[in-house]
Amino acid sequence: MNTEFDEEEKLSSLVNMGYTVDEASLAIDRCGVDSSLVELTDFICAAQMANVADAQLSELPLEVQPKLKHSYSEYAKHKKRKLSDYEMWTKNNQNGFEKRLLHDDDETIRLPNPMIGFGVPTEPCSTIHRTLPEAAVGPPFFYYENVALAPKGVWTTISRFLYDVEPEFVDSKYFCAAARKRGYVHNLPIQDRFPLLPFPPQTIHEALPLTRKWWPSWDRRTKLNCLQTCIGSAKLTERIRKALEDYDCEPPLSVQKYVLDKCRQWNLVWVGRNKVAPLEADEVEMLLGFPRNHTRGGGISRTDRYKSLGNSFQIDTVAYHLSVLKDMFPGGINLLSLFSGIGGAEVALHRLGIPLKNVVSVEISEANRNILRCWWEETNQRGNLIDLADVQQLNGDRLEQLMSSIGGFDLVVGGSPCNNLAGSNRLHRDGLEGKESALFFDYFRILDLVKCIMTKAQ
Ligand code: SAH
């Protein structure tokens, strides 16, 4: 009990100092619970420095170039008659690679404050105009998402690979009652966007009216923090209840601070006298804009529900960006959905009233694929849903075959896993080279193949 308390105290102190929960827990994990705060912050700083170094573009070719080149040489080998295409591709990309990987002015992309990207419904920024680099212009349209707070250099690299398009950083707190800071790189128009209606609840009390009765005046939160993949423990909520039960009215400031820190850290809400609780999975579903019970039942565990929801898109935010497609594709779209998860992109397009003609969805988790398939059937979709498991298996041959049968893709969406991006750890070789995060390069590889195949078909 003591050790656990000590660990949470340290975690909370580090988070208060501005480190992420992931950074803090990793440091405690590596250095041990008994380490001093100074040792822990030293570790985090060292890990951050290692990340900066890791993200230096000059280190990337060793990890990445063979991987990308390998896919293409495989593609070319199996398609001897297309060798000239492959040669063209490598030739075209030689400069691209050098430009993308060997750039030494590693200027870091600054996160905007307020984090409203190219506009949000309350501040549409109608005055912003952007000119896309020529190589970025579709078809297809593309839309890539990841966590905004990635180690230094990561967004510069992502943007450089995705045809030098500037990321749009948006916090979903401008759309709903929970924060979610994400970066989006896309080639969609940014004029005449419109939000989904009805506009979702904007405050915790509007979203969860039953909590209002128990909410103490000293807890001034009106928005939740980012909805994560795991929830606070029963032990923690019990400790909070015990810490509060000695006081009839307001607890002393030190106790208030302890409780508020925990509530912020774990997104706890008031459900009774002195009683806080983590959000229920259906509340998370609602906050993220999914239909009720979207992830419930059918064999998925509670833990997996939180995990899939914690990784997913916030529907209202993504729909706002995708809304510009509605007038362009009145007959519906063909979607390539990479890392589809529980179908954030599919749900957003459907809620916008954009018909889904053909969806090729690539998602490794069977539980997630089942969720998307159930939703597809429940919403009586008229189009075709083709589901595949692993983006790494999706090669040029298969893409060509899929594209010739459906007639190309209008939109390629994907939010690759952020496991190695959200924390920092030299030992796990974080940054974009992390095992999971490196899947970003598969997003780029597949998108570039789609572009290549579509150009050729024109
Ligand atoms: N945007 C999605 C979630 C993206 S999270 C949504 O709205 O729900 C990243 C997803 O990538 C996870 O669901 C994870 O299971 C999946 N994934 C991880 N490795 C993969 C791989 N090799 N191929 C396909 N999907 C993968």
From TrEMBL:
GO terms for cellular component: nucleus. Gene3D superfamilies: Vaccinia Virus protein VP39. It is an enzyme of class 2 (transferase). It is found in: Nucleus. Belongs to the class I-like SAM-binding methyltransferase superfamily. C5-methyltransferase family. The keyword Oxidoreductase does not apply. The active site is at C418. Transmembrane segments: none annotated. This is DNA (cytosine-5-)-methyltransferase. Its EC number is 2.1.1.37. Residues 128-457 form the SAM-dependent MTase DRM-type domain. Keywords: DNA-binding, Methyltransferase, Nucleus, Repeat, S-adenosyl-L-methionine, Transferase.
